UniProtKB/TrEMBL annotation:
It comes from Pseudobutyrivibrio ruminis. Residues 248-265 have a biased composition (Polar residues). Residues 1-29 form the signal peptide. This is Uncharacterized protein. Residues 246-265, 1282-1352 are annotated as: Disordered. Keywords: Membrane, Signal, Transmembrane, Transmembrane helix. The chain crosses the membrane at residues 21-38. The lineage of its organism: Bacteria, Bacillati, Bacillota, Clostridia, Lachnospirales. Residues 1304-1337 have a biased composition (Acidic residues).
Amino acid sequence: MLKKGFSKVLQAILAHKVKTALIASGATAAIAVTAVVMTNHPMEIKDEVIALGGGWPDSFFSDEYVEPEFVDDPSRTNNAFNVADFGEQGNNGWFYRYGSALDPVKSRRLESYDGEKYFQLGKTGMEIKSNFIHTAEGTAPILEWRAADTGKVNVQLTYVKNANKDKNPSYPDGVTLYVYKGDEAIGRYEVDVSTDKEEVVEETIKDLSVEELESLYFIVDPNMNNAFDGGSLYVAINDVNAKGPTASVDTTRENNNANSQEDFGKQGNNGWTYLYGKSVKDAKLVSTEKDGAYMNVTSPNLTISQYFIHPAINDEAMLCWQPAVDGKIEVRGKYTKFEQNDGDPTWPDGVVVSVYKNGEKLFNKKVAAPAKGENSISFREQDLEVTTEDKLYFVVDAGINSSYDGGCFDINIIDRTGATTEADVQIDESETRQNFADVKYDFGEQGKNGWFYQDGFGDEPTGSYNMQNFETEEDRYFDSSYLEIKRDFVNTGKGKSAVIKWKVAQTGDIKIDAAYTKFKNEDKNPSWPDGTRVTIYHNDEVLVQEEFEADTKKEITKSLNVEKVSVKKDDFITMVVNGKDNNAYDGGSYEFSIKGLSPLTGKTHKDVTSTGGSRTNNASMQEDFGKQGSNGWVFQSGYYLDPDFAVNVETYKENDKYTTNDGIEIKRDYIMPANKGRSANVKWVAAQTGPVDISLTYTKLKNEDANPDWPDGVTVYLKKNNEILKKQDFAPLTDKEVTKDLSVEGVNVKAGDCLTLMVDGKENTAYDGGNFTFVIEDADLKTVDMVNNSGSNYANLALDFGEQGNNGWYYWEGKSVDKAEVLHQKTEDGTGYTSRKLKGLEVKKDFVQPRLNAHAMYKWVVAVDGEIDITGAYVKFGHEDPNATWPDGTTVTIYRNGKDIFDETCSCPRGEDRSNKIDINISKLSVKAGEVITFDIGCNKNNAWDGGRLEIDIEDANATKVGVGNKERTNNTVLGAIDSIEQGTDGWWFLDGTSLKDAKVLHYMNDDKTAYLSGKNEGLEIKKDYVHPGKNGAAIYQWVAYSDGKIDILGDYVKFGQNDSNPSYPDGTKIQIYINDKLLTEQDVAVFAGDGNDNKIDFMFTKQDIHRGDKVSFVISAKGNNAYDAGKLSVSIYEANSESTGRTNNTNLKNAFGEQGSDGWYYGMCDWDGKNFELLEMDTENNRYYNNGKPELKADFVEPGNGKNAAYKWVAGETGKIKVTGKYTKFVSSNDPAADGVVIRIFINGDEKKFIGVQGNFSSEVTRDINEEYVVHEGDEIVFAVNPEGNDSYDGGRLEIKISDGTGNDDEPETPDTPDNPDEPENPGENTDPEPSDEPETDGRTNNTNLASAFGEQGSDGWYYGMCDWDGANFSELGYDSGANRYFNDGKPELKSDFVEPGNGRNAAYKWVVAEDGTINISGSYVKFANNEDENATGTCMRIRVNGQEIYFENQTAGNFDSEREATFDKTIDVKKGDVILFAIDPEGNDAWDGGRLVVNIKSVD
């Protein structure tokens, strides 16, 4: 068998034919053989299969050659690829040999290696490189690979035979490939040679068993000659279990930006993979990467590296990219075909470059192989929609041959998801854009003033995209391709041109100013940068284009100006900077601006102003500032320093400023020009013909630029029409502000003339802001003769303020004290004066504000010769100006005639809740009648927040003093009963002061002469029955004794309740009582929450020694504040008696009723105020006092009428404290719908002490409880007066009064009242005892109850249902409506278990009586239902009282609400059996929609 097999092999060699063989030796290998010829015309290869023998004759072997020792790498595996492993002998098991193709085992190693190739001396043509192999004459080059491990391997063999270029093309005879396993031939493949194509052999041997270090030989046999025997041999050996190449998933990707060169690296990096294949459909990952280059084991000469790509003759080379996210991309690509150096320059046929999306071909082009230089093509695909499943393929196909098919891809993939163009950006058209634009100043967001900053393609002005990445700190657009656009610098990107585009604002003619400076080329390879090309377009039309070389020695600047272009609105003017083939050192500076040549578009002063009418030639920019045209003012921007080349600024923030998008800012006192030569103009149009005075100042603010040399200052003009009246230059000083006056007086104007303030920012507007004042006035001054006929030198500004001349006061305005005019025009609210000329100035009693160019003046005319004291203060109010340093305060000057006697500047504090004060105190100023004292309030430098208040009090230095007086009187007096409060009346004086020592007699009274006021002590008011201390001093009542003796001083002080929004803020008052400087008492008087929730203290001092002229003082002063410090002082002073009446202060009206005077009681009638008491005659038959109709008084019935009160008068039997208890019951009055109820008043010596209202129309009896304490003097008259209140229809009722000694000594036993009809209850629903019951019946009750579950009959579980006053007084039970399960008052109040509503002036009240001594917890909630159906509804408040003492108050339910409001309570208190706990809901204002729900739980905690 061996000989037979070998014979066949030998025959095949001698036959010298191209064949493909499959050789089998036992079960050693199964070999699949395929021959693929990569040509346009398939070459036929015979299918002859030759079986080689398993061995060789012994005569073939020789021992002359000794194989060098091989030291193997123990980590080596059965995976090898000759091209990648090429190197030193033995590397990864490879050896490079020469010898006979028939006996490779006897071959020898090649001895020469230069690092690139192996060769052998004497063997001409013998060469083995990594990817090239060539035979020698008669000798074959041999690749040997030794197995690393025992096992099975797969072998892939690809051989490309180069074309036959021999001059005698018939001479070359091709080669034969052999594969041996040891000395066993397992493959033989004959390869013919062609003159017009390369021959390709692709073979695979699978599942080949190998032993460790067993050799596989791969042989190229030269056949008969070695002419043109060169080719590429690729051999890959892999363990059968080896895995193929894989690509990693790049998890760092966030977008679809990619670049083939910058991203080059591992398979999968940024979505890139490197493939081979016959087409994109069967493309696969290349097998091998070495030293930064990818190759494939079956694709000879296929190479993919960062800057190089070469296809194989049998496989296309491909770059593949897969998107990271779904979206839209743009593909910009460039392929460069490198120069070819083939010996036959006609042989290289170039390549075909294609681009695919999945299987769809997007681009395809043949690229020739240039004999010199490079051949480049570009491709671009815009708006390509992709998903993460898509793949883009960039393919290079070798064509007919692969000779010199090397080139380079530069592929830039740009994520255009969300990308925009100029069409997608809405330009701000909030103001009319003009054809003035400059990228240096407008640079910023896309679309600002029509500018767009884009990345483009080549020289194209269209199809570009807006740059997305704007770096604020660097003030630039920048992307990863190094495309960079600043306001004055531009650099192209890799594969991207820089596009700067402006959208035309208006149709007309424009001028383009543009220039470009190419910076020096400083590249280390100076030949690499290729310069730039800059083009200016109008739409797609080239206006100018310039080339800029990459000069290494100098910068190159060229003008790109265009003097005139006619454009239409929405056209585009575009600058394109093209980096050409690369962007190396493409940076340069540029200028690009547009100037309009046609008139501006927009409104002017002619559109918004008019002359004549009510407008005058008085105007102040600072005060008139507002809408365009207001009082002739117009706010404009313009160009060329021409007031007529201007239009009105359109953007106005009301009461704040006018602005333009490019920097114009005009406020009432601040002006800022814009760049691009755009001036800021303030223009006034004259209303009338005549002369005017122009007051104009401009203050250049400090230069605080980080680069102080950059700002260049401003030029300020004052123009009449286009004539310059004044001009001032302002340097940009860094150390100070500079103010200059541009005022002009006596300028003659005609109606319609324009006076313009123009601020020009020159070359730049850095720190060009400034403050200004601009006032125009006519020259007319109106005056008046000033007199004071009051006859005294007493004056108070706040109290006298009113009409001109009142008490000698006049109100003026003017530039100075001697250049002023009287004010005649009232403020809108009629409370003060304002200027007829200009807005802003106000003169009021409590507010004063000057205006620019005019001070506010208060003038007072001296009434009589003498000396005066001037006291007071000027209070400068705080500010909230956004510029905290701008308000600079006011000046305060006082003049006597024209000479100043006081001069101060008052600064303006920050914060409207703050103020600064200047005290004014001028003593004993000698004056003569007719002299004028002027209080002048002026602006400092500006009038920002110049409001304040002037407080002035003028007194005769020899003021009125407290004294006895000349009128004869006694030491008996009642403060509340004096008939007037003229100082000294009945010895009474009214003063204010911080102490008795500095107290002064008050002079000013209110209009009805019932109260004294103070102009300098805020809040002070003194009446005989009302007192409120001042903020700065006490209210003082002073009585002067008329004669020597002893006196009794009795009275009380009632501190009224408070309703402050912050109930904890009012802190009460203090009362002090003195005789001369002897302090009799001093008490702090707390203030209680709630209107009518008064706090009363009594005082009584008896048998006090007194001398004529002694002073008894009652000092009422505020404590920490004087909020809600109102009250009432009641004082009675008596000459002390040594005798007594013998009666006590214990009596009962019903028991004592009878003869006049019995037990001190008298029965009669009086006026509503208790005066003019008259005794009535007794009708003994009916046991009544009667006035022939009305009034009528009985022991158990009383009815007023005929315009008179029914009055019960009782005279106190002794000096001391008394308790007055009882009640008044109003009988039913509903028989007459017009009946309106009554009012009960209690008077002591004519001084009203108590008011009890029982007004209304009643279908059932209504009860009001009486429970009062008073200090009385023997002989004092206490009157209980029932007033008919409106009409006297059905005004009958019953008054029950018990008077007892307040010390607890009750000598008068109380006789129970017996009702007239013993079969009926005397007063159904009456609360018989508002105080805790002495012996309440509890019926075994405990202190555990719940309102909802207990609700039912009156008294059930201790609960009672009724109504009361706001303070809990006068509780009366309501009747029960069983049909609705409610207690009801024929309307309101209404009480249910789950609903409660107060009304008709009464609280809805749930009362519970404590069952036993102990500690209880009261918890629950009050829910106020929504009440917004009536916008006037005011809500409610809730109180809890224990025995009349308030323990809980909540008013968060007061107001108008669209949803429920809930107040909760939780109180733990100690109680006694019989204590009364009252839950009262107050209607608080009105009773509209006052419904709610009360939940109460009471439980014992003992």
